[in-house]
Amino acid sequence: MMEGCEYAISNAEAFAERLSRELQVLDGANIQSIMASEKQVNILMKLLDEALKEVDQIELKLSSYEEMLQSVKEQMDQISESNHLIHLSNTNNVKLLSEIEFLVNHMDLAKGHIKALQEGDLASSRGIEACTNAADALLQCMNVALRPGHDMLLAVKQQQQRFSDLREHFARRLASHLNNVFVQQFTQALLQLYNRSYFLSVPGHDQSSTLAQHSVELTLPNHHPFHRDLLRYAKLMEWLKSTDYGKYEGLTKNYMDYLSRLYEREIKDFFEVAKIKMTGTTKESKKFATLPRKESAVKQETESLHGSSGKLTGSTSSLNKLSVQSSGNRRSQSSSLLDMGNMSASDLDVADRTKFDKIFEQVLSELEPLCLAEQDFISKFFKLQQHQSMPGTMTEAEDLDGGMSSRQHNAGTPLPVSSEKDMIRQMMIKIFRCIEPELNNLIALGDKIDSFNSLYMLVKMSHHVWTAQNVDPASFLSTTLGNVLVTVKRNFDKCISNQIRQMEEVKISKKSKVGILPFVAEFEEFAGLAESIFKNAERRGDLDKAYTKLIRGVFVNVEKVANESQKTPRDVVMMENFHHIFATLSRLKISCLEAEKKEAKQKYTDHLQSYVIYSLGQPLEKLNHFFEGVEARVAQGIREEEVSYQLAFNKQELRKVIKEYPGKEVKKGLDNLYKKVDKHLCEEENLLQVVWHSMQDEFIRQYKHFEGLIARCYPGSGVTMEFTIQDILDYCSSIAQSH
């Protein structure tokens, strides 16, 4: 438009005017166009009116539809509420069914189990298995973890009461039956002991030969069949322990009462046989066992035991009476054996000591498996833990006890593991209460027979204690053997002290030569025996300490006796005895006595030399005195070549002294010396030739010494001894051969 009006800029008014005209033209055209479309507008208005009518009709229909939908909504709400109630009812029914199924499944005991608990056969293996299964099922039913509210249900209460009654009834029946089994086993074993006692006590039988034939093996009765029969009830005992601890405890007490009396009889018989085998003799009037009772008497005792077993804690007076009579007789027999006279160790040879060693070892070898088997049985049968379980773990018995919160009428509480270990130990102490005193009596008898038997017992007992402690340091066996070992060690120390005291109390004869002292020979015997016994032994240290005490005592008392000796020279007593000690220590090669061996050799050598020098001073006494005077002058400062100018030691005096000792006289003096030495020395040590050879060497040394003094102090005098070294050798050889 601007381009069409070139003057728009230069003539704005003209341009505005033109625009105004064109606008008027357009407005007119628009009005005409509107006027021309009025008909169409009317038509449009008519259509709008019709549309409004249609809308009204639709609104009426929608209103009717809305009313219909409102009715449907109300019906749907009712249906929805009804469905919710149905779902809730179904849910409750399912939960109720689940609870009922839970109670039925966990608190319903099969009729077969109920019958087994009420009247099941506890004597047969099949019956025991059925009762065990029934008891486990009952325990599971009673230990079920009830959900909140279950205990308020009447049916649950009734079922719990029924279970409790079943438990009480079966526990009472089981306890009574097991008590009867204990009594039957005890009676059976007791009857066997009576039969044996009766056979051994029949008049006319040789007691010692009968015992030797009957107990060659020296064995204890085997209780394995009894243990095997009772172990069938182990699971039931575990059940009883977890459900009725009072009855379990009562059974435990009854078992200990019966077994302690049975073992007391068996062990005392066993030890009695061991004592008789050790001594090898028995008095005619001494009975091996109690006097035999007639079979009717045994039957009466048996019936009384069965009668008392009806109640678990029933009277056992008849059993006590029976045991008291038995133990009284046993004590009298033990005392009679221990009253035997003490036998001298010299009357026993190696075979006797070996026999004692074998018997003592057999006794220990029989007791060990007996105690271990019984302890193992007690642990398994009474379900007692022998070893501490690891922290955080749960044993089978503890697992079964997990749901015991709902248990009622429980008579006691199961013990923790540490207390159970103590209970095993206490049960073993009560059952085997006679082992320790019987072992001590046997040890006392062995010590009476021969004090050296304490060496055998110390080695054997130490080995068995070491073995037992490796298995279980706190076990009954380990503790008991340890206590007995203390007694054995005390006897061993007493044996050493007695030997030292005997050394101090030894008296020697004033009329006969001393020779090898008794305690020196006894030390040799002791050391030889000890080395053979303690070879590879665990307690070598005890022997080494004893060696040290003994050898010191030997040394001190040899010197004491030598100082007191009147018939035999002190040097001879010291020489012979220390030579014997040195020979003993060299032969035995005792490492802890090496210093004492060297000391003994030194003492022997010193006193041999002292005796030789002292003895040789007598055959050439005047010659000895003469040359001692010469040496004294030289010691005073006189020159050796000037000694001959001394009046008392001139050449004439020398010749005079030498003439007093011609070869014949020297030989005679040596012969007398040989006889004197022979009288001093004892034959068993065989030192005569050794001493004589030493005297020969010493004599030759003195001869050379005299010749040297003559050559230095009397030079050119031509004075010589009237015998030569060869003459001395010939004299000594001739004298030795002639005797």
What structural keywords apply?
739 residues; Sec3_CC; Sec3_C; transport; 26 helices; exocytosis; coiled coil; single chain; mainly alpha
Shape: elongated
Share of helix among residues? over 70%
The biggest sheet amounts to: none
Class from helix and strand fractions: mainly alpha
**Count of separate DSSP helical elements:** 26
Q: In sequence order, what are the helices and strands, one letter per element?
A: HHHHHHHHHHHHHHHHHHHHHHHHHH
Which ranges are low-confidence, i.e. pLDDT below 50, for 5 or more consecutive residues?
199-216, 282-348, 388-413
Number of strands: 0
Strand content: under 5%
Residue-averaged pLDDT: 79
Rg to the nearest angstrom?
59 Å
GO cellular component, one term: plasma membrane
Keywords: Coiled coil, Exocytosis, Transport
GO biological process, one term: Golgi to plasma membrane transport
Organism: Physeter macrocephalus (Sperm whale)
Explain this structure.
This protein has 739 residues and is mainly alpha-helical. Among the domains are: 16-101; 506-613; 618-737, no CATH class. Helices cover 74% and strands 0% of the residues. It contains 26 helices and no strands. It has helices at 12-36, 38-107, 111-119, 125-142, 154-200, 207-214, 224-231, 234-243, 245-279, 295-308, 317-338, 350-381, 396-400, 417-431, 435-449, 453-471, 476-505, 518-533, 540-564, 570-588, 594-616, 621-635, 651-659, 663-680, 688-713, 725-738. Helix 16 packs antiparallel against helix 17, helix 17 (476-505) packs parallel to helix 19 and helix 19 packs antiparallel against helix 20 (570-588). Residues 12-143 form the Exocyst complex component Sec3 coiled-coil domain.
